[in-house]
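Meet my pick.
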Amino acid sequence: MTGFGEGRSSSSEVSISVEVRAVNNRYLKVSVRGSDPYPMLEPDIEKILRQKIRRGTITVIVRAQRESNHANTLLNQEILAQYIHQIRQLSERLGLRDYTPLLNGVLLLPGVTNPNLSDQGQLAEEERQVMEKALHSAIDSLQQMRQTEGQAMALELMNYHQRVSHYLNIIRGIVPQVAANYRLRMRERIRLALSDSNISTQEEDLIREVAIFAERIDISEEIMRLSSHLDQFKKVVQEEKDSPGRKLEFLVQEMGRETNTIGSKSGDVTISRHTVEIKAELEKIRELVQNIE
């Protein structure tokens, strides 16, 4: 499900804004961008997101505006040394005798300074609290937008549910006529085949043949199961709050299985045509529910 949320929080030392953007994805994928050192704290931010979000490609953008106090700013000497080494190598390759002008902006390169990190590489507790407050606010804002989208998706799912139920009711009404029509066709074929001979057939033989055919094409059990799945589907859409997307995916899969069986067993062109319509609706539902948490 798609959405956008924004949150802000501040203290005497720092002001932080967080944007959370979500697009559809069957699984949860999180990426963090923004001010140092927050891209390096992606695992911690993802852990917070997973408390409320289960699906979607989530992009988190953290912007921190700190006061002009560099007491808590640490220099990442290893990364700085790597930058200087690469600048030196490039200068030698280009034949530059003096590469010191290229070092003027090296402290501004990503990862060189880690503001507000402790000696153990942990974010200062005060700034962490400010960031988490802004992040939770952004997530709440995102969830409100996704909730609105979810309500619209629920209405769309119920429209698909009604169409599938409609086609199933048509099939249910056709079923009693299938065996009767087969009996009439058999009687007519036998009459034509025996019209030029004195051979007669017994009604019992015809009845037995029709009974065998009726048992072979019996789809009442499949219709019952498909109807039950539709009832469960409706209940999940209207009432389920805990991971309805997974449950809906499973129900759609089972409904597709029953529909395929109905189409293959029925032996009737009209029923087969309506099963195709049902499968088309189920495919639309399948695409939709993959984006539902």
